[in-house]
């Protein structure tokens, strides 16, 4: 295959990746976007195999590697539950980071194979690219591992605040810059591995202070990091497709992180430096009546069956209980009774961007019934019932009314403006932000304490009686 043809095919794959991102921006076109992405990746891999593989033996090794990796990926894809998608995404990000470190190490020890010079005489430009790629890759690797452990419940979702963490992080960042300069000037393998070590530690220290409420930002941020790491690999390998793909993923991840932060009225820097969780909110209202009105599935069934409009607000509690199918059954039952049903999605509900949209799509909820915060918030005042299923922090009126609250200013779903708010939750405990939800104690709120899936199924049964 000629170099011109390879460049053209890489360009085609890049265009398909752009179309994939465009398609994934909306649920109705997401399947088509996935197809574009898969075709683009197939073209990129095929072109690399035919153009860049130096020998038949190398070709066989790459094909074997593809078969092993593809087989493992297929098994994971078939077995993974939709509710475990956030931790799967974090785990995949870690692999991209690790790949960047491995490619950089290979380039350092065998530069002739990469066309970047000889051992001990590597081009300065290649060393800079290699240094940045390995640093971002190592940070992505350990940061993604910590995110996976938090999302999978193997590590507490609460922030782990180390003493003088900002000073330590700043010191490591400065040390990385110094080490990169030393690597470029000395080409020392020892310096290279010091860069790897410092970056691995920094990746851990960046993520462990971040609380569960900021996990959507963390996932999109790590997505961005993995993109830049891939772009670094692309420069090291001289592969146009990797450079284009990495830049697309890196920039789109950064934009998504900004959108997530805007959805929480947070600055990106504040998330990285601390994150929600662990703060103790001042009492919003010392005179507030802390009495809770607790109801049953029968009460909820009666209220919804006699409503004209019900807005359902899914949250992470729905994901944990895997209640999305029961929720769809409830909505169908309500629509059969002539009740108008809509779903309200907060941009940071769940543990990754679009988490609730993915789960509702799995339950085959019609796309035209699902609305983002800014499109539906004004409708809560006309709703008879807001059915909140595990969405704690994103419905907390303290974000709107209490200036002393750590989440003050974060846009929320105005479920308290509905005539009745039915709130499904296991207990009255705080959410991932670590603060009390004043919605529980409002006059129009009825708490339905219990497992979200079972409670929803019980409501459906009660409507049949």
TrEMBL record:
<keyword id="KW-0521">NADP</keyword>
<keyword id="KW-0472">Membrane</keyword>
<feature type="transmembrane region" description="Helical">
    <location>
        <begin position="58"/>
        <end position="77"/>
    </location>
</feature>
<dbReference type="InterPro" id="IPR034300">
    <property type="entry name" value="PNTB-like"/>
</dbReference>
<feature type="transmembrane region" description="Helical">
    <location>
        <begin position="130"/>
        <end position="151"/>
    </location>
</feature>
<feature type="transmembrane region" description="Helical">
    <location>
        <begin position="6"/>
        <end position="23"/>
    </location>
</feature>
<comment type="function">
    <text>The transhydrogenation between NADH and NADP is coupled to respiration and ATP hydrolysis and functions as a proton pump across the membrane.</text>
</comment>
<keyword id="KW-1133">Transmembrane helix</keyword>
<keyword id="KW-0520">NAD</keyword>
<comment type="similarity">
    <text>Belongs to the PNT beta subunit family.</text>
</comment>
<feature type="domain" description="NADP transhydrogenase beta-like">
    <location>
        <begin position="8"/>
        <end position="461"/>
    </location>
</feature>
<keyword id="KW-1278">Translocase</keyword>
<protein>
    <recommendedName>
        <fullName>NAD(P) transhydrogenase subunit beta</fullName>
        <ecNumber>7.1.1.1</ecNumber>
    </recommendedName>
</protein>
<dbReference type="Pfam" id="PF02233">
    <property type="entry name" value="PNTB"/>
</dbReference>
<feature type="transmembrane region" description="Helical">
    <location>
        <begin position="89"/>
        <end position="110"/>
    </location>
</feature>
<dbReference type="InterPro" id="IPR012136">
    <property type="entry name" value="NADH_DH_b"/>
</dbReference>
<keyword id="KW-1003">Cell membrane</keyword>
<feature type="transmembrane region" description="Helical">
    <location>
        <begin position="167"/>
        <end position="185"/>
    </location>
</feature>
<feature type="transmembrane region" description="Helical">
    <location>
        <begin position="191"/>
        <end position="210"/>
    </location>
</feature>
<dbReference type="InterPro" id="IPR029035">
    <property type="entry name" value="DHS-like_NAD/FAD-binding_dom"/>
</dbReference>
<keyword id="KW-0997">Cell inner membrane</keyword>
<keyword id="KW-0812">Transmembrane</keyword>
<feature type="transmembrane region" description="Helical">
    <location>
        <begin position="35"/>
        <end position="52"/>
    </location>
</feature>
């Amino acid at each position: 295959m000629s170099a011109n043809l390879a460049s053209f095919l890489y360009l085609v794959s890049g265009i398909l990746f752009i179309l994939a991102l465009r398609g994934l921006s909306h649920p109705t076109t997401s399947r088509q976007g996935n197809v574009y992405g898969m075709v683009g990746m197939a073209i990129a891999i095929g072109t690399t195999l035919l153009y860049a593989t130096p020998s038949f033996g190398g070709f066989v090794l790459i094909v074997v590697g593809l078969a092993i990796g593809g087989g493992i990926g297929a098994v994971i894809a078939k077995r993974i539950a939709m509710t475990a998608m956030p931790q799967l995404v974090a785990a995949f990000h870690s692999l991209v980071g690790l790949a960047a470190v491995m490619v950089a190490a290979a380039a350092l020890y065998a530069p002739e194979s990469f066309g970047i010079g000889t051992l001990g005489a590597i081009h300065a430009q290649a060393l800079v690219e290699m240094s940045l790629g390995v640093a971002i890759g190592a940070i992505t690797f350990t940061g993604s591992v910590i995110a996976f452990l938090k999302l999978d419940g193997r590590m507490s979702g609460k922030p782990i605040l180390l003493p003088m963490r900002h000073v330590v992080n700043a010191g490591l960042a400065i040390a990385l810059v110094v080490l990169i300069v030393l690597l470029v000037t000395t080409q020392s393998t020892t310096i290279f591995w010091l860069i790897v070590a410092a970056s691995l530690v920094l990746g851990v220290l960046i993520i462990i202070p971040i609380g569960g409420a900021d996990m959507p930002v963390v996932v999109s941020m790590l997505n961005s990091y993995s993109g830049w790491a891939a772009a670094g690999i692309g420069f090291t390998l001289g592969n146009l497709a990797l450079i284009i793909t990495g830049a697309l993923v890196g920039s789109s991840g950064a934009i998504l992180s900004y959108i997530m932060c805007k959805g929480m009225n947070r600055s990106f820097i504040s998330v990285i430096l601390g994150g929600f969780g662990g703060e103790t909110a001042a009492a919003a209202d010392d005179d507030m009546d802390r009495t809770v009105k607790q109801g049953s599935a029968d009460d909820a069934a009666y209220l919804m069956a006699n409503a004209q409009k019900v807005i359902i607000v899914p949250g992470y509690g729905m994901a944990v209980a895997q209640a999305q199918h029961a929720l769809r059954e409830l909505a169908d039952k309500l629509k059969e009774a002539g009740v108008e049903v809509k779903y309200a999605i907060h941009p940071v509900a769940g543990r990754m961007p679009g988490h609730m949209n993915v789960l509702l799509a799995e339950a085959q909820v019609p796309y035209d019934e699902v609305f983002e915060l800014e499109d539906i918030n004004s409708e809560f005042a006309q709703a008879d019932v807001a059915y909140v299923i595990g969405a704690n922090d994103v419905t907390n009126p303290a974000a709107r009314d209490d200036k002393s609250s750590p989440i003050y200013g974060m846009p929320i779903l105005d479920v308290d403006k509905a005539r009745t708010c039915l709130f499904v939750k296991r207990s009255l405990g705080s959410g991932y932000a670590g603060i009390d939800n004043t919605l529980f104690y409002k006059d129009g709120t009825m708490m339905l304490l219990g497992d979200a899936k079972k409670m929803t199924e019980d409501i459906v049964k009660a409507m049949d009686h």
